[in-house]
Amino acid sequence: YVLESKLTEFHGAFPDAQLPSKRIIGPKNYEFLKSKREEFQEYLQHPELSNSQLLADFLSPNGGETQFLDKILPDVNLGKIIKSVPGKLMKEKGQHLEPFIMNFINSCESPKPKPSRPELTILSPTSENNKKLFNDLFKNNANRAENTERKQNQNYFMEVMTVEGVYDYLMYVGRVVFQVPDWLHHLLMGTRILFKNTLEMYTDYYLQCKLEQLFQEHRLVSLITLLRDAIFCENTEPRSLQDKQKGAKQTFEEMMNYIPDLLVKCIGEETKYESIRLLFDGLQQPVLNKQLTYVLLDIVIQELFPELNKVQKEVTSVTSWM
Residues in domain Sorting nexin C-terminal (predicted)? Predict the structure, then answer.
């Protein structure tokens, strides 16, 4: 019955499997327990108890010492009883001994277990309770569809969104690199639907004007000359370590001065320094710079020779058809 109360707390009551009542009138000897053996076996063989840790502890020789013996044999404070008996005997002086002895006997007996009933138990965040909560046995007991439940409990603020356009790029860099505060990120997300297209149209117009200025004849000549000298000219002496450090320091200071003061007030000086340091260190990786150069070279070649794109699409379509 102690096991039943423990199982009821965790698994709930089983209407189709009940133990016989503890208040049955009659001798509770071995013959009586033997007559109720089938009912006990039927209760222990309930399907929902097949993976119960409580039942395994109860049936193991040493598993139920701490869980079940506390309710069966409560602690009796013998010292307190021995000290209280002489004082009560002296006070009574031999009078009313029979009720005193009966009360004394009742106080020494273990209290009768109360009828068990389901109670609300709050699980503390322990490792044992985590095993019960995340065990496969207790997953999807109602056999609900996972897709509907996921749609109802979906958190749209934690949804991963695709980054597209200058506005999204700036938001991503501000959130990841510059660590803008939450209020500013939420403000930018709220105004995204209003200013995204406007900002991207202005950016396209601004870049188009700059490219037209860059592609003028005299500027193209100087750019081609600089590119030729950087790739094919072998007469230039390699820079010393001191010159490289001086150039790196100047570049870092220019990057620090490029950040607007309004953004610095929002993120702070320390965050500004760490963010610029992250960007600066990221651009000093030779392997990544080489990969970036190849990617940009592919884009330039595709813009100069658009027919290469058509050939590649035809080859892809033929391969997928085969």
Answer: 183-286
